[in-house]
Amino acid sequence: GAGVSQSPSNKVTEKGKDVELRCDPISGHTALYWYRQSLGQGLEFLIYFQGNSAPDKSGLPSDRFSAERTGGSVSTLTIQRTQQEDSAVYLCASSLQGLAGRMTQYFGPGTRLLVL
Amino acid sequence: SQQGEEDPQALSIQEGENATMNCSYKTSINNLQWYRQNSGRGLVHLILIRSNEREKHSGRLRVTLDTSKKSSSLLITASRAADTASYFCATETSGGTSYGKLTFGQGTILTVHP
Lengths: 116, 114
Description:
The complex is a heterodimer. Chain A is an all-beta fold.
């Protein structure tokens, strides 16, 4: 079956512009996660959605970052007024459930964002 | 600081040799997972070991977990050039509201020379 998909694959934008990154999770997966990976670094947790519960936004680095998940499926990560330090690969993952964990997360290929 | 710290940061070996990567963490965990990443893109799940397990095998992979030392190791036996990738450990912290949130280490870059 289809895995997690993300779009666009690559995005180049100018400083100050807004960008939207999209994630289509695996069908039936109730949990969805966004991570950020800067060059040569590990993954930084950004936000987590689980079903209809309030999202865990504890990893969002600033109020310029927001995310929503419509209909419990597709998610959009929005970065407003982009800065050069926002340049990174943004990875989305989904799993069957998040609460009390122990579930494998399946990752998308990521969106490589470059802010000039 | 990162929950998981891995060593070595980089490992270079010849095909056929074994590769061992280590991961240390700070808090109590529900489980520890190892992921592989090629070319800085998506991660692929390799193996999950629960906090009440000490060792787990999957093909050429062997993972150990020592909760008293808060450490784990990933052993890849009989390495192949295709094993060249970055390897990350990730921990799911226990206690409080467990959302399945994973905290990743910085990773080990493994290069296997043909």
